[in-house]
Amino acid sequence: MSGPNGDPNINIDDGIIDDDDEFNDEEYAAIDSMLDQINSCLDDLEERNDSLNGKLHELLESNRQARAEFRAKMNEGLAEGQQQHTVQPSNEDSAQPQGEDSDE
To answer: Is the CB of residue 28 less than 8 Å from the CB of residue 22?
Structure first.
């Protein structure tokens, strides 16, 4: 017969698995205390995790806003640069008065 985990050489009748363990009140209290400490540590970790998660979301949103502002400024700069090119005539255009051909 195989063991509890499927181990082929372990027999339940060998006495290796003994369910007759008796715990006294002190052992239960010690286990309960350890579980309370573990639970407290897990609560602390969960609180820290939530705090870090909130800070990361704030940082992400701040980064998104900064990128949006940067893009807006870049687009403004490009638009102003394009306006300057259309408003200021080039050197060739300024040499000839408008409406007059040099061939006349």
So the answer is: no
Distances in Å between the alpha carbon of 14 and those of 4, 28, 37? Answer: 12, 28, 37
Rg of the chain, C-alpha, whole Å: 40
Helix extents (H) in 1-104: 25-87, 91-95
Q: Indicate left, alpha or beta for 22 from its phi (over 0: left) and psi (-120 to 50: alpha).
A: beta
* 54-86 tens-digit pLDDT: 999 999 999 999 999 999 999 988 878 777 766
- The CA angle 65-71-76, to the nearest 5 degrees, is 125
User: What distance in Å separates the CA atoms of residue 85 and residue 87, rounded to the nearest whole number?
Assistant: 6
The CA distance from 104 to 100, in Å, is: 8
Give CA–CA dist 49/42, Å, rounded: 10
Owner of token pair 């060739």: 92
**Cβ–Cβ contacts within 10 Å for residue 11, how many?**
13
Q: Does this model's pTM top 0.70? A: no
